[in-house]
Design goal:
InterPro entries: DksA_N (IPR048489), DksA_RNA_pol-bd (IPR012784), DnaK_N (IPR037187), Znf_C4-type_bac (IPR020460), Znf_DskA_TraR (IPR000962), Znf_DskA_TraR_CS (IPR020458)
CATH class of the largest domain: Mainly Alpha
Helix content: over 70%
Shape: elongated
Order of helices and strands: HHHH
Radius of gyration: 19 Å
Distance between the termini: 34 Å
Keywords: Coiled coil, Cytoplasm, Metal-binding, Zinc, Zinc-finger
Protein name: Conjugal transfer protein TraR
CATH superfamily of the largest domain: DksA, coiled-coil domain
Number of helices: 4
Strand content: under 5%
GO molecular function, one term: zinc ion binding
CATH topology of the largest domain: Four Helix Bundle (Hemerythrin (Met), subunit A)
Number of domains: 2
């Protein structure tokens, strides 16, 4: 992959990373804010349910941050865009859709089939 494309993907990854970190900070701010107990049990349950949902999202984003950091390291060491399973180049269209991808589309499909068979 040429330097211009690598720079473009690096910018995409950094932008995505920044957006995730911004969301994390907003969630932290919401958690730190002091909540007054609500008199209505239904309102309290709704608030807690929403908070649990937000925390699950942040957990998923934590995992995505690790993938983004891994992709940025791969750009630095010259291995970005190479499938970790077969060693072939990952199609640019796939990288545009998921710049943190580590598998080509065929290897990813095979991985998903195996996960489905194992019930994961």
């Amino acid at each position: 992959m040429d330097k211009e494309k690598l720079a473009m993907f690096k910018e995409l990854l950094l932008k995505r990373r920044e957006e995730i970190l911004k969301d994390v900070l907003e969630t932290k701010k919401e958690l730190v804010e002091e909540y007054e107990p609500l008199a209505d049990a239904i309102d309290q349950a709704t608030r807690e349910s929403n908070l649990a949902f937000e925390l699950r999202l942040r957990d998923r984003e934590q995992k995505l941050l690790k993938k983004i950091d891994k992709a940025l390291k791969k750009i630095e060491d010259g291995t970005y865009g190479i499938c970790e399973a077969c060693g072939e180049e990952i199609d640019e269209k796939r990288l545009l859709a998921r710049p943190e991808a580590t598998l080509c589309i065929e290897c990813k499909k095979a991985q998903e089939r195996m996960e489905k068979i194992r019930g994961e």
